[in-house]
Amino acid sequence: MKHIISMKNVSLIRGNRVILKDINWEVKEKEQWVILGLNGSGKTSILNIVTGYQYPTKGEVSVLGKKFGQANLPELRKQIGFVSSALDRFHQTLRSETVEDIVISGKFATIGLYENVTNEDRERAEQLMTFLRIDHLKGKTYDTLSQGERRKVLIGRALMAEPELLILDEPSIGLDLLAREDILSLMKEIILHQQCHVLYVTHYIGEIIEEMTHVLLLKEGQIVAAGRKEDVLTEERLSETFQLPVKVHWENNRPWASIHKNIGSATLAKAESK
Fold first, then answer.
1. Within a domain: residue 62?
2. Where is the ABC transporter domain (predicted)?
3. Which of 124, 154, 166, 189 has the smallest set of CB atoms within 10 Å of its CB?
4. What is the pLDDT of residues 33-89, one digit of tens each?
């Protein structure tokens, strides 16, 4: 079975700070993963390594069967779709671009269109816009869209090149409840119909929909647990990960978390200070 992601004894050290320590993690075909952890737990560093923008201090990494140190990283990135609120830093470039042109730019992994666009490219973009329920936005510019609409456009851009791996870094951040559930319903459709592997990063257990099969729990740069979500999302492991007494219940194959009522104010203050 092909490994989509493989990390063996991966550590990342910057100065005297250990950011990741001894990460051993594999994503196999037909697995859809979620990464959970507090801010500073190492989630972003793992994404930076997977996309080849950061090299580990030690250890071996391969993505989509390409071993780092031997792989052509610019070519590899064309097989990886990436959606993150961090793309908002390109707002000045994106703001006057039309929705369809932003989606098409995903074929070239650029912000803005600088290459020739074929009729087939435009047809592909329109199909994606219909799939993502944003075809009514054709011709509109990015700066006229709501936050939820912008997120869908960036998902369309990420899907344009038909990636084998789709990374979504907190795609619901800044969205209201309705827009968040709309994004999650699209995640279900993407997993079922787009034939790509999803790596979904979030703080919120309630965003783990039924179609997401596996979970990686991170704490302070180390793995707390990794595996099938039913095995990983226990109260003990989640309490360790989030440093709070967490209760878990499941509804319609979707987990939800709450905090034990008897948590002391000192415990909560300590957690909030981290």
1. no
2. 5-245
3. 189
4. 999 999 999 999 999 999 988 999 999 999 999 999 888 888 888 899 999 876 767
Comparing C-alpha atoms, which of 205, 192, 168 is closest to residue 50? 168
| 53 within some domain | no
In the chain, the number of structural domains is: 1
Alpha helices in 132-234 (DSSP H): 147-159, 177-193, 229-232
pTM assigned to the model:
0.89
Nearest to 209 by CA among 27, 2, 32: 32
Q: Which residues of 140-157 are buried (b: 16+ CB within 10 A; e: fewer)?
A: eebeebeebbbbbbbbbb
> For residues 139 and 234, what is the distance between their CA atoms, to the nearest angstrom?
47
Q: How far is CA 4 from the centre of its chain?
A: 15
Rounded-to-integer distance, Cα 176 and Cα 172, Å = 8
